[in-house]
């Protein structure tokens, strides 16, 4: 983003930018914010231009004007911005290739395959050529040559600066220096692409093309950045964590079950399922660091806290059925995979999605909302859905969404509806209900139960919301992700986040223009697929949440959802 000053400000600059490292914090060069600090940042892209007010600017305390050492600053905004930030790279080694951001003529930056308007040829645009990470000796030799020609040379040092460059030259005006611009790259982590920030552009004429360029390294300033950006007393809660505490949850994707580890208290331990660790609740409520292994259902537990020899609890058949969901219906999912190879139309339906129906006047059945089949006889939905017509629903339609001509979906009658005893229709508190079918269904490749997400430490970072389409067996899918509790409370302002609720946001890709924002019906399913390495089976789906209510005027409006794992015990106790 560009830095902006009020009109007429002394020492205002138009050659400085900053980079988001979280939704409220940016990094730039100290020389860009001194002696006169900017008052706002301005984002400018293909689809929109917005400005955001700055709350605070903190330059490195050891920076001296005109010096290249400690040339880094932190900018904090007054409000959060819905962007995908870059993660600061704090390791000493860098990848071989990076993207070096500069500025050049728009007609030379045709990365998206657009046909540029001839009138835009001279308009400046961001450029991001890929360049090679070079040993510091290359930049050192170049600087020494400049000094030998009696040219002024800044005091760059190997311990604070990075060197980038390629031998190939560029066309004139293709890419020029932009102070504070990010040097970054997308790197695969935990099955996804993560944007990492390695440095801030400082010197060099052509973005490293033909002549080397120098950037301020992020890693050497890690301790100072932590002291400015992180506030231990008010650490934001990890998305989906227990609301009453403030743990700093660290997910280590390299740790697997049974691996040795060190927990947040510095004790040696091993990665075990969270229910086998007697200190799980204590760690989550302590406000300290909690280390999760791989996907979060496995926690790093000190050796002395691992449950051993505990008296066995009475076996609850409902709990056994729910907890063994993936294994119980594995054969059906394998059969479904084979069917998909023959006919995607017939086997491409949503096998566990149930539409909740009421018989209307004239005998027509209306299906205004949805639920999720979790046992052969039980559907989970919201209380608002179950009571949406002023009377109990009478029939469910299961497996019809996305059904083909030969898909054997079901229309079983409903026997009973169980609404949470403390449900409050005015504010949506405990907005959950169970629907019991008249008879258990028979699991087939077309219709079978899916699983419940029962992890109470966190939610999946990404999930899919399924929204019914105008009372028809059609849906639209939307990527959503959970919000931090602190951010959610801030966004809700005067509204209260109630027990059992979690805030979510629709995904907003950086390069995608959102034309319209749909409204979601109560009971819309939010699910996650447990992707495995087995290519010959349909991955198990888990119900993470149910959409309760929320505005839909803008794409970044908060969605209030019912967190299913909070009601796991209630669900178990109310299934007969």
TrEMBL record:
Gene Ontology molecular function: serine-type endopeptidase activity
A biological process term (GO) from this entry: proteolysis
Peptidase S1 domain location: 1-230, 306-576
Key words of the record: Hydrolase, Protease
Keyword GTP-binding (UniProt): no
Pfam families, per the entry: Trypsin
Family: Belongs to the peptidase S1 family. CLIP subfamily.
Protein name in the entry: Putative trypsin-like serine protease
Organism the protein comes from: Anopheles triannulatus
């Amino acid at each position: 983003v560009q830095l902006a000053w009020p009109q007429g400000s002394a020492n205002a600059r138009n050659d400085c930018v900053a980079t988001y490292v979280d939704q409220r914090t940016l990094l730039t060069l100290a020389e860009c914010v001194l002696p006169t600090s900017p008052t706002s940042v301005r984002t400018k892209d293909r689809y929109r231009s917005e400005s955001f007010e700055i709350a605070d600017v903190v330059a490195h305390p050891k920076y001296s004007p005109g010096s290249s050492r400690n040339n880094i600053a932190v900018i904090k905004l007054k409000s959060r911005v819905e962007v995908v930030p870059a993660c600061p790279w704090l390791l000493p080694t860098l990848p071989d290739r990076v993207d070096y951001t500069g500025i050049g003529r728009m007609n030379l930056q045709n990365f998206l395959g657009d046909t540029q308007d001839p009138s835009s040829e001279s308009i400046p645009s961001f450029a991001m050529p890929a360049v090679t990470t070079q040993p510091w000796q290359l930049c050192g030799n170049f600087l020494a040559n400049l000094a030998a020609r009696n040219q002024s040379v800044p005091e760059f040092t190997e311990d604070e600066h990075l060197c980038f460059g390629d031998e190939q030259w560029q066309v004139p005006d293709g890419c020029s220096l932009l102070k504070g611009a990010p040097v970054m790259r997308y790197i695969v982590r935990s099955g996804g692409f993560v944007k990492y920030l390695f440095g801030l552009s400082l010197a060099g004429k052509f973005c490293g093309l033909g002549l080397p360029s120098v950037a301020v390294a992020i890693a050497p300033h890690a301790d100072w950045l932590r002291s400015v950006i992180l506030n231990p007393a008010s650490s934001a809660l990890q998305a989906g964590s227990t609301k009453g505490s403030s743990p700093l949850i660290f997910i280590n994707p390299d740790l697997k079950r049974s691996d040795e580890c060190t927990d947040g208290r510095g004790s040696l331990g091993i990665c075990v399922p969270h229910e086998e660790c007697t200190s799980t609740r204590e760690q989550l409520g302590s406000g300290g660091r909690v280390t999760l292994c791989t996907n979060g259902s496995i926690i790093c537990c000190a050796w002395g806290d691992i449950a051993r020899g505990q008296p066995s609890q009475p076996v609850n058949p409902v709990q056994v059925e729910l907890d063994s969901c993936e294994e119980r219906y594995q054969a059906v999912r394998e059969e479904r995979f084979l069917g998909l190879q023959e006919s995607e139309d017939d086997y491409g339906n949503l096998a566990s999605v149930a539409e909740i129906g009421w018989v209307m006047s004239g005998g027509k059945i209306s299906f205004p909302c949805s639920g999720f089949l979790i046992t052969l006889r039980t559907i989970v939905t919201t209380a608002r859905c179950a009571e949406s017509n002023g009377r109990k629903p009478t029939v469910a339609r299961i497996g019809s969404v996305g059904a083909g001509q030969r898909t054997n979906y079901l229309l079983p009658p409903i026997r009973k509806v169980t609404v949470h005893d403390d449900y409050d229709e005015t504010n949506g508190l405990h907005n959950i209900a169970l629907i019991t079918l008249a008879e258990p269904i028979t699991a087939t490749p077309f219709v079978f139960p899916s699983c419940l997400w029962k992890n109470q430490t966190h939610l999946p970072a990404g999930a899919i919301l399924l929204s019914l389409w105008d009372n028809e067996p059609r849906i639209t899918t939307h990527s959503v992700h959970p919000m931090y509790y602190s951010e959610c409370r801030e966004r809700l302002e005067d509204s209260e986040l109630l027990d059992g609720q979690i805030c979510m946001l629709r995904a907003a890709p950086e390069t995608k223009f959102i034309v319209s924002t749909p409204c979601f019906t109560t009971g819309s399913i939010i699910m996650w697929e447990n992707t495995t390495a087995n290519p010959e089976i349909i991955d198990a789906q888990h119900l993470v949440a149910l959409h309760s209510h929320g505005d839909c005027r803008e794409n970044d409006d908060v969605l209030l959802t019912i967190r299913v794992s909070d009601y796991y015990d209630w669900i178990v106790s109310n299934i007969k």
